[in-house]
Amino acid sequence: MNYLKPKTVDEMLKNIDENPDFYIFCGGTDLALKLKNSSVDGVIDISSLKQFDFITKTDSMIQIGALTTVNTILENHYIENYIVILSDVAKEFASHQIRNIATIGGNIVNDSPVADMIAPLLVLDSTVTLLGSKGERTIPLAELFDGFKSLTLKNEIITTINIPIKKHQHYYRKVGARAKLNISKLSLAMIKSEDKYYLSGTSLNPYTKRFFNVEKLLESGEFNDAMILESLEKDISPSGSFRSTKEYRFQVLLNMIKEGLDGF
Amino acid sequence: MQINCKINNKEYSFDSSPTKRVLDIIRDEGITSIKEGCGEGECGACSIFYNGKLVNSCLMVAPQMDGAEILTLEGLLAQTKHIRESFVEEGAIQCGFCTGGFVLRAYDYAKQNGVKDEKALKDALDGNVCRCTGYQKIVDAILKSLK
Predict the structure, then answer these.
(1) Which of A27, A115, A237, B7 has the highest count of CB atoms within 10 angstroms of its CB?
(2) pLDDT, tens digit (0-9, with 9 covering 90-100), for B104-119
């Protein structure tokens, strides 16, 4: 396996252009298992590029560098004060040892349907800033995903996650087989802001997306359980897996939506 | 590839395949307090301090060691003496396979904020698994060491 460790951004961009099939490597908590279990041509380790490890706040947004570890997010007072849902997610993310090295950018680009960070970032209307040798662009996070384990990155890396600051109430719950180091059966991230609802969750689609039909239904103010389930049919397509059945996921998601609404 | 690093304050230099796990490299050097439990980042028996942060060495590959400072229990014997004694006094060890990881996490926890609160401590132990004790004696031992 080829292992490249660029020391500068220019060197990294050159590495990516020359080796578009190599995996971008940072903390390695997901990739290490892949390296063990399958043959990988090469990785580009970007962990030296500390300029992408930061959390800053302006009047309108909080920006998180892609190399920021989950424990750094958990300990950050801007996030604790303005984006409580992300602190809640970080608290239940893997274990202390993994949170010490796993990065938010890695969780996003690994693009697992059970990735904890993606759903809360989607309901917060986050954008991501991407960098490639052709330049920088910022797109809505949702536009990064176009299928199961499929990203719209074009020889680019994520450098920054941009989260708008807005007044909101939030609900987050992760359901799994155990209390700690829990890989979710499903989770729900829900936000209410200015009478609008934003919902998303893990393990409910081939890749994580918002539940637009349920959002519209809740906004209308007139709904019952059957109507929520009917909208969910359009928003989610959970498969039965070894972690949970399809029926369980529908029922528990309905229960969580109602629990969230009760708290608002 | 050539790797240079410090393990327990001693310089090491070796040639390694880039996919070799840090866990295996350290154990091959005769430093065996770290164990392979699950091999997939869930049990914490392979925990090491990596540039000051506690991480799972089974989820790391050789090149990540280059230039790094690594500490295992062997390099922290004086600093963890009271914790290890507390484990013995409370009978918090059965097979002992997980103990090194728990002692390092207890030391890490005490260094960070170390509030003497059972709930906070149990949350803090989310990356360490013990299959023998049922945890209570481990929790008691760590709480005692925090006095």
Answers:
(1) A27
(2) 999 999 999 889 999 9
Structure tokens at A109: 């680009």
- Find the CB nearest B127 among A2, A28, A95: A95
Same domain, A21 and A88: no
Print the SS3 string covering B40-78: CCCCCCCEEEECCEEEEHHHCEHHHHCCCEEECHHHCCC
Distances (CA, A) of B134 to A240, B94, B105, B127, B138: 32, 10, 17, 15, 8
> Are B63 and A3 an interchain contact pair (Cβ–Cβ within 8 Å)?
yes
* Nearest-neighbour CA in chain A from B67: distance (Å): 11
More confident residue, A38 or B55: B55
d(CA A208, CA A200): 7
Nearest to B127 among A45, A47, A181 (CB): A181
Q: Which domain holds residue A105?
A: 50-164
| A37-72 confidence digits (pLDDT tens) | 778 999 999 999 999 999 999 999 999 999 999 999
The CATH number of domain B2-74, selected from 3.50.70.10, 3.40.50.1970, 3.10.20.30, 3.30.1360.120: 3.10.20.30
Separation of alpha carbons A207 and A158, rounded Å: 18
* ipTM confidence: 0.97
Domain formed by B81-145, architecture: Orthogonal Bundle (1.10)
**Alpha carbon distance A89, A108 (integer Å):** 14
